[in-house]
């Protein structure tokens, strides 16, 4: 469910300031923005005497969250808080923060996550119906700390909050590039900090089978390159997630995407004597389980019987995507089976497979979920449809809306494919429902959404910077009111949230320097930072086109890996050019000049380190950028029309700059062009 | 084994260039430096066709190391190596790198780690007696990659190598601050990269019991704050270490350092009705197991019977340190027991305890090891003595030498206490044997050394920067010839090794920026970097003196935590001042002026971010540094004697700068003073 999809870009439809978004969002950096919020002039001062009490001390989610809260509060403010652990609420002894909840809840789809929070200059009070609501409140609190020169404090705020959608997920593909437990755990921490509640674990694919099976040990022994989770590690991750109020939905992708399974058990394949092997490239491949072989079902039944107890959640994802059934068509026995069973197409055959799978899963008390290909006319509405295709994929109607109308519960991922490396704006603008009119029943079937992180082009070194901070903005889309749509305001809040995610343990900011130090062979990286702040990695899988085709073991320590979506200097420069060209304001003009100056000077710093194969490829980019910047700066500073010679020179160089370099694109090219046109015409 | 020790600082004794150190160490950045090395003018070019073969493909240590080698080689050079995995050596098909070894060895003390390595322009060849020798060779290879502008290559080198000492360890204390599995694993990777082979896991102390016990579950449930390793995690870590050729020696510290154990099982304590609880402070405390109670031995026997199968190594560390026996003396029954058993002192009583413990461990096929307090006259020489005290501790003779002479096997840690935050020079200068004359038998008893990382003042965020890169230099002391002692040369090589350790996954470099971003509240950190490059955290535990006393849950996200030993700008500045004052050379003068200019300008950048409680404390430091720098710069630039007024002003400010700020010291103060004296006297 990931090739050739073209995102519907709603830019312009939603980005005007929406009056109903509470204007306190200019003042506070909460994300997701709460449903109801008001503030007062009071502040609660944070001192060494800060204390926390909870309605029950039970080693449960809230005690853990409150302890973590104390560590983060202390770590962030530098205050030596005397009491390092929460106590039980005691009416005779007031604490700084009092957290109460009505009951301990299981981490399920329907759990109540609402909470209220009130901060006065005397106390912080949290109340929730469930312990999970209480930990959501604690996440809110951690976004509220404020400081001045001498004190740290919580602003006086009252919040009443609850999520818009029940299902707020992040999928991580650990098949194409394995991600160790530590990567998963830090991402779970990050998810909880922005109130996400489903971790969808894409555990198997053509490139690897990533979980230990005692029943079928060849799966992890022969089809993982030794990179898999032991069952104990899986339990550990599920416990970790549960404590954060996050459900874990595993995915075993069948019948397609099965190269790894068939590497271990080729006898279950649809093509006889086919040399199945772990796939090293990215793409859609033909190896497919044989749905006409009873051994396939016996295998899946045994495997799922072994695996499902590890995952307490009632949903179980079977993939089901991107199977054209090429090997089915080529196999005479399978063709005969289709005829005998009145299955006209390969889709019908896959539905036959899916229905048998659903029976197996139901016996194991699991609900089947699959990518939207499983939504065929004969598929029972008990299945949950994971919508990854929309109108952009050539469908008449988004598969999400279609599913809801047909009676399926459904979750949206179309529009939330963060591995495509588009700007956060694009994803933020995608609303699961939008302006579609639905009945109450239909609306209730739309459970929520899921961010998808496919891992063809990421490793543990880079994955955080591909997921975050953009996912925090999508988390807001899933939690907050539909009316919260102001892009500028979101960007302002996201910037702070991004730093707080680093504080939490994510590597999305710090690993940029690691990669650049590697690229520079341990020399000064400042000039590389300057370049990486205006370059973005090629988008929508085009990095895998052209000259290079990446394998799973190709190097992901290149300049493109240090660059990210939403290159910060590019955003700022582009905004100032647009503003300057519109209003000729001097502030923007000076900002533009200072950027151009930076890029001119940067070439000398860059040349000083330029002595290896990895920096070599950036030489031309750096010097061309300097050339254009000199011309533009001259025009701007002297406020004159450029000479024809200069304009032509700059124009030619800009043409060159449009070409990708080292799998990145220079994302200021349009505004360089606009500026040149303006200065050439003056 | 950690309080009040004062390191013997050998500086000046060893730091002259030793002629026997191979001068190729100026050319290559190997660490530890090999026993024998020669080079040629040939180079082996690294291309996409690079291949690796091994004498056996067995999913063992070498196959893993070779695969990891390919990933690192590709990641570092950016070369898309076509074949991602090693193959079996095939005489008809030559590979780029051929690795052969005679046998697969167990990871034990006596294992042969020698190897030979030969690089020509045609091939890289490794041979070793054991698979462990082979992986040591691969670690060497990864320090040899070189590049110019367009190619990456291995230089033509021949090495024949073997370690000087059998025991080359790193101890990590996970009791005072718990360190998750991911921290341990990345440190194991780092250890292997510099050929260390013992991970000593200090699992219990007053501040926590960090391992799951099914036999005595209160230990991890009541005495760890939920921060412990499950037995499965322990197995995982031991497997991980074994694959890297690293032994794991667990330590269960008894009978002292027992607050955590006694929190869970107070009935085993030496003081009746004492309210034992997990210790939150650092220090030496009185809670002690009762050595006169048979239940104590039953408990330890059961616990060790449960725990020892997790640790295949034959050595088992029982701590045994820092017990003054205060609670023993205060307990009448214990005093009576001593009298009845003819035990005159508490030391005798502890030896009684140790001997009973040794019996228990021997029955479990383990050899007892303990800190040097266990070396009493009646202690059998079957025990291994871990020497942490030397002449600096008031002993007449280093406990290491004493132990070796008395017939004990012994390991040195005195001099390798990296948590004291001294310069790498100090540790590098400590030789386990030095000039002491020993018989062959005595020499053979000196197994090697161990770096100790006590964790009172470190968290997962900072621990790497406290261990590395200094430990790499100590690893060289343990592996390389005694004659390898050139400090300047070591520093040159260590700088590169440090970056390679980051490439490997360590956080010692990148987390500095994380802490400074936190301190600056997400503003520009460049001025804080400048200050952190001349400030070092207070040394030898003095951070815990004075105003603050740190608890285990105090914030370790302060300026001192971003600073490290061997502050880089300070080293450079101090060297240039010394050089300038000696020879009045202009290069050094210009360097000094540029540092002074940096510090003058830095104050303005610093003031621009100065708006919170954490930066506030650095205000004075920044502005005083500016004041002194202005005066000194004036004197240097104009080559004149300073006015009396200027000299007095600067002198006063330097006095102020001598005082610790935010738990750090400005380590350029001596050279500022020297420079001022010089300029005042001109």
- Which class best fits the helix and strand makeup of chain A? alpha/beta
- What does the largest sheet of chain A look like? 8 strands, mixed
Helicity range of chain A: 40-55%
Classified by CATH, the class of the largest domain in chain A is Alpha Beta
The total of helices of chain A stands at: 25
The CATH superfamily title of the largest domain in chain A: Glycosidases
Overall 3D form of chain A: globular
How would you describe the overall organization of this protein?
- The structure is a homodimer of 682-residue chains.
- Chain A is an alpha/beta fold.
- Chain A has three domains: 36-161, 2-Layer Sandwich (Chitobiase, domain 2), CATH 3.30.379.10; 167-504, Glycosidases (TIM Barrel); 511-681, no CATH class.
- Chain A is 40% helix and 15% strand.
- In chain A, the strands form four sheets. In chain A, strands 1, 2, 3, 4, 5, 6, 7 and 8 form an eight-stranded mixed beta sheet that branches.
- In chain A, a hairpin with a 4-residue loop joins strand 5 (115-119) and strand 6 (124-130).
- In chain A, helix 20 (568-583) runs antiparallel to helix 21 (586-609).
- The longest helix of chain A has 24 residues, at 586-609.
- The relative contact order of chain A is 0.10.
């Amino acid at each position: 469910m990931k090739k050739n999809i073209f995102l519907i870009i709603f830019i312009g439809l939603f980005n005007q300031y929406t009056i109903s978004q509470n204007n306190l969002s200019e003042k506070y950096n909460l994300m997701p923005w709460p449903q109801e919020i008001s503030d007062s002039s009071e502040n609660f001062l944070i001192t060494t005497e800060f204390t926390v009490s909870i309605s029950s001390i039970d080693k449960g989610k809230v005690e853990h969250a409150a302890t973590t809260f104390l560590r983060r509060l202390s770590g962030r403010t530098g205050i030596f808080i005397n009491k390092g652990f929460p106590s039980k609420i005691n009416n005779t002894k007031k604490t700084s923060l009092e957290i109460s909840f009505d009951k301990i809840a299981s981490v399920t789809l329907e759990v109540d996550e609402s909470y209220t929070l009130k901060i006065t200059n005397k106390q912080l009070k949290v109340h929730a119906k469930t312990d999970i609501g209480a930990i959501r409140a604690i996440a809110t609190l951690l976004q509220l700390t404020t400081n001045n020169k001498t004190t740290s404090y919580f602003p006086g705020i009252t919040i009443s909050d609850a999520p818009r959608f029940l299902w707020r997920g992040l999928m991580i593909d650990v098949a194409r590039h394995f991600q160790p437990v530590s990567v998963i755990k830090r991402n779970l921490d990050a998810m909880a900090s922005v109130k996400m509640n489903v971790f969808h674990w894409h555990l198997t694919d053509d490139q690897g089978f990533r979980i230990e099976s005692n029943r079928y040990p060849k799966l992890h022994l022969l089809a993982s390159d030794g990179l898999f989770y032991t069952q104990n590690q899986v339990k550990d991750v599920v416990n970790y997630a549960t404590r954060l109020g996050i459900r874990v939905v595993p995915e075993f992708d069948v019948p397609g995407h099965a190269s790894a399974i068939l590497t271990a058990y080729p006898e279950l394949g649809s093509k006889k004597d086919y040399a199945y092997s772990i796939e090293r490239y990215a793409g859609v491949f033909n190896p497919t389980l044989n749905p006409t072989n009873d051994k396939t079902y016996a295998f899946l039944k045994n495997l799922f019987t072994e695996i499902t107890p590890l995952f307490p959640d009632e949903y179980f994802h079977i993939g089901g995507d991107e199977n054209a059934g090429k090997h089915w068509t080529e196999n005479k026995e399978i063709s005969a089976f289709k005829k005998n069973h009145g299955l006209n197409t390969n889709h019908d055959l896959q539905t036959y497979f899916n229905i048998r799978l659903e029976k197996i899963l139901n016996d194991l008390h699991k609900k089947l979920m699959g990518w939207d290909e499983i939504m065929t006319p004969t598929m029972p509405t008990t299945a949950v449809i994971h919508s990854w295709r929309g109108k952009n994929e050539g469908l008449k109607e988004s598969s999400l809306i279609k599913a809801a109308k047909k009676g399926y519960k459904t979750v949206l991922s179309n529009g939330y494919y963060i591995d495509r490396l588009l700007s956060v704006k694009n994803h933020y603008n995608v609303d699961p429902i939008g302006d579609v009119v639905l009945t109450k029943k239909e609306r209730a079937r739309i459970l929520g959404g899921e961010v998808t992180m496919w891992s063809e082009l990421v490793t543990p070194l880079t994955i955080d910077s591909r997921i975050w901070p953009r996912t925090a903005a999508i988390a807001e889309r899933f939690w907050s009111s539909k009316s919260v749509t102001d892009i500028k305001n979101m960007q302002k809040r996201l910037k702070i949230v991004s730093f707080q995610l680093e504080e939490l343990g994510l590597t999305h900011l710090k690993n940029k320097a690691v990669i650049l130090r590697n690229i520079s062979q341990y020399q000064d990286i400042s000039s590389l930072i300057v370049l990486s702040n205006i370059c973005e990695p090629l988008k929508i899988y085009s990095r895998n086109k052209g000259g290079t085709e990446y394998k799973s073991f190709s190097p992901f320590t290149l300049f493109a890996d240090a660059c990210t979506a939403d290159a910060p200097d590019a955003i700022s420069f582009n905004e100032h050019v647009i503003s300057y060209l519109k209003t000729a304001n001097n502030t923007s003009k000076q900002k533009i000049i200072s950027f151009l100056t930076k890029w001119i000077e940067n070439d000398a710093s860059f040349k000083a380190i330029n002595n290896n194969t990895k920096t070599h490829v950036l030489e031309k980019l750096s010097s061309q950028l300097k050339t254009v910047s000199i011309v533009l700066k001259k025009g701007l500073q002297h406020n004159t029309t450029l000479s024809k010679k200069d304009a032509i020179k700059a124009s030619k160089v800009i043409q060159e700059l449009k070409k990708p370099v080292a799998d990145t694109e220079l994302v200021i090219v349009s505004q360089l062009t606009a500026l040149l046109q303006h200065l050439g015409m003056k």
